[in-house]
Amino acid sequence: GGANPIDANEAAGLAEGHYNDFETIDWLKDIGRHRKRHREILRRMKLSCRGKLVSLFDSFSGWLCVGLIAVAAGLVAGVVDIGTTWMSDLRDGICAEAFWFNKEQCCWSSNDTTFDDEQACRQWYTWAELVGDSNKDFGAYIFKYLLYILWSLLFALLAALLVKVFAPYACGSGIPEMKTILSGFVIRGYLGKWTLLIKSVGIMLAVSAGLNLGKEGPMVHMAACCGNIIAYLFPKYGRNEAKKREVLSAAAAAGVSIAFGAPLGGVLFSLEEASYYFPLKTLWRSFFCSMVAASVLKLVNPFGNDHLVLFYVEYRSTWSVIEIGPFILLGVIGGLFGAGFIRANVWICRIRKFGRLGRFPIAEVMLVTLVTALLAFPNTYTRMNTSRLIKLLFSKCGPEDEAELCDYKWNSTNDYSGSAPAGPGIYSAMWKLMLAYLFKMVATVFTFGIKVPSGLFIPSLAVGAIAGRVLGNVLEQVAVSRMDSFPFRLFCRAGQPCINSGLYAMIGAAAALGGVTRMTLSLVAIMLELTGGLQYIVPLMIAAMTSKWVGDRLTKGGIYEEHIRLNGYPYLDNKEEFAHTTIAADVMHPRRGEAQLQLLYQDSMNVEDLETLMAASDVNGYPVVVSRDSHYLLGFVTRRDLMLALEFARKNEDGIVGDSLVYFTEHLVAGAVAARHTDAGASSTDGQPPALKLRRIVDLSPITVTDQTPMEVVLEMFRKLGLRQTLVTHNGRLLGLITKKDVLRHIEYLHSIDPHNLIFS
């Protein structure tokens, strides 16, 4: 039969770019496929008008894709912000005139001049008032307490059930997995539409349940889900995993942009923390994506005050050089908190993962919610929404403020904009804040990792802001009592507070978040955009850098790296140094005593041999060598390409049977074989079945190293080139191969961590 020998190879080509679940992508191959496709578009452009239009659309499609992602992410964030605020207030009461208003919106429509968290306004009814109970007595307090707990449990139960039943991948913050996916790993369904839907609804429920978690981390995951879904509308990105990673990097930037209203911070976060491969084109696309997402959120205006975040503040006061000491102290406190938090949280998550605790995820969520609600309600600072708490701690006191934190003994002698001695309210607030600090520290350790969507940014900021505010208030009172003595007389000026305790809260918040995540550049940018305080760049940098130094001395990486390690994801951290003297021969497989590598021979195997080999093994690919006796390396064939080529040949080529010889070379080398069989696709004279030529599916230039190559060089090749595996040779002869998993196991072994925890191929 006259079958065309190329057809089988083209069938395998159709499968290029498709990876199975939990596989590492081949960056070089995917980028090569993209370039080949681009060359084809340029060739067609010269031939016809249609080719010119296709080329124009192709060059514009990247910007269009990230623009659509930004619009989708901005809308999702707007809905989540509005929903969260409304549901959080639902635990306290309801707006009688329009139930869809939250407490603040309800009181805008009212003509009341007073508005505070306890009393609100006439339009807003607490649940006790609706039942007809007066709002002040002990019975009403108990009733409010019980309802607070019941609403919290209901919201938490709904969130946990939605995650368990519809989208198990929607739990957690999603940033460790995002980092792993961006480093070239495939987790099917992690960025799907169900995950997006359940994560958005689940995070509203989880935050409204009063759990110690934030919605900002999950917004990165939700934006990436938008990115993945929209990428499939553009074959350039949908069918090429390496190109899709560029779009997902831009989506991660948009996620932080909408979470904090910090477009530049988002781009820097994607560069510093999330992305693995970040070419200049991706930087521009991330910039554009961040910008559009923030604009869309501004249009939605979720908080009704034209700010993109709940805790936007503006300070007018300056800071003094002498305050660098306290800023460093806050950095140290943040670093210690971060390191302690990481150790405690990873320890609990390990028990959750490998112990009995993990078998009852919903019961655990309910227990954590119950304890949180019981302990949080009595203290006003733990009862309120965490974003509102941060806003309160960041804010500056004026004479008209009636809050406890602003209970100063103002009198005619001290200017209202300056500093004054503390009243009893401040002392009461300090005790409550210290209790809130301990409570939030412990509660966040237990909450991060339970099976509901949960972010870590907001709880970390809150813990740091409490520490900063307390330190600021203490220093302020010391300065007020010694205003004329050195060093306080240097920076106590008339009309300005000696110490701005709101600024200290901001610096403390940055230090705590830096201690937990080890971000520096992106952290400072996010804090600047959050607060609009450009003159505080240096204090923020001091706090971020100090907390990173202190944290790095105590634990190896940030919380996300630790969770990647705990889950066994194949993530090669490109920030780590490799200080050992091992060589490729120490790491490659097979070693002495292990089973031999499964190889393909260039011209001495038939179709049945190949099918038997594939049925007996589950490796991702096979090296091609000359023959059984001569292991000189010719190339590499992936399992998927080989399987599809054989299936296609069996179905569509005449005369291909189990005995058909398979050639992986263009020119037939072995003389005897060449004499016995004619070219592929033609029946030979002595009744032999036609041969099958599969040279086009062979990668003739696989990345190879010699057995004496230092492992630090091999590691750099895996990081910089994004390899799945490299072949090890000696004088051209194949000795073995090293996969990404082998490299990770070797690093874990050298760090004396259990290397068998790595679960994915």
TrEMBL record:
<feature type="transmembrane region" description="Helical">
    <location>
        <begin position="53"/>
        <end position="80"/>
    </location>
</feature>
<dbReference type="InterPro" id="IPR000644">
    <property type="entry name" value="CBS_dom"/>
</dbReference>
<dbReference type="Pfam" id="PF00571">
    <property type="entry name" value="CBS"/>
</dbReference>
<keyword id="KW-0868">Chloride</keyword>
<feature type="transmembrane region" description="Helical">
    <location>
        <begin position="534"/>
        <end position="551"/>
    </location>
</feature>
<feature type="transmembrane region" description="Helical">
    <location>
        <begin position="219"/>
        <end position="235"/>
    </location>
</feature>
<dbReference type="GO" id="GO:0005886">
    <property type="term" value="C:plasma membrane"/>
</dbReference>
<dbReference type="InterPro" id="IPR046342">
    <property type="entry name" value="CBS_dom_sf"/>
</dbReference>
<comment type="similarity">
    <text>Belongs to the chloride channel (TC 2.A.49) family.</text>
</comment>
<dbReference type="GO" id="GO:0005247">
    <property type="term" value="F:voltage-gated chloride channel activity"/>
</dbReference>
<protein>
    <recommendedName>
        <fullName>Chloride channel protein</fullName>
    </recommendedName>
</protein>
<dbReference type="InterPro" id="IPR001807">
    <property type="entry name" value="ClC"/>
</dbReference>
<keyword id="KW-0406">Ion transport</keyword>
<feature type="transmembrane region" description="Helical">
    <location>
        <begin position="456"/>
        <end position="475"/>
    </location>
</feature>
<feature type="transmembrane region" description="Helical">
    <location>
        <begin position="321"/>
        <end position="342"/>
    </location>
</feature>
<keyword id="KW-0813">Transport</keyword>
<feature type="domain" description="CBS">
    <location>
        <begin position="588"/>
        <end position="655"/>
    </location>
</feature>
<feature type="domain" description="CBS">
    <location>
        <begin position="694"/>
        <end position="753"/>
    </location>
</feature>
<feature type="transmembrane region" description="Helical">
    <location>
        <begin position="247"/>
        <end position="271"/>
    </location>
</feature>
<feature type="transmembrane region" description="Helical">
    <location>
        <begin position="503"/>
        <end position="528"/>
    </location>
</feature>
<keyword id="KW-0472">Membrane</keyword>
<dbReference type="Pfam" id="PF00654">
    <property type="entry name" value="Voltage_CLC"/>
</dbReference>
<keyword id="KW-0812">Transmembrane</keyword>
<dbReference type="GO" id="GO:0005794">
    <property type="term" value="C:Golgi apparatus"/>
</dbReference>
<dbReference type="GO" id="GO:0008021">
    <property type="term" value="C:synaptic vesicle"/>
</dbReference>
<dbReference type="InterPro" id="IPR014743">
    <property type="entry name" value="Cl-channel_core"/>
</dbReference>
<keyword id="KW-0129">CBS domain</keyword>
<feature type="transmembrane region" description="Helical">
    <location>
        <begin position="191"/>
        <end position="213"/>
    </location>
</feature>
<keyword id="KW-1133">Transmembrane helix</keyword>
<dbReference type="GO" id="GO:0010008">
    <property type="term" value="C:endosome membrane"/>
</dbReference>
<feature type="transmembrane region" description="Helical">
    <location>
        <begin position="433"/>
        <end position="450"/>
    </location>
</feature>
<feature type="transmembrane region" description="Helical">
    <location>
        <begin position="145"/>
        <end position="170"/>
    </location>
</feature>
<feature type="transmembrane region" description="Helical">
    <location>
        <begin position="362"/>
        <end position="381"/>
    </location>
</feature>
<dbReference type="GO" id="GO:0005769">
    <property type="term" value="C:early endosome"/>
</dbReference>
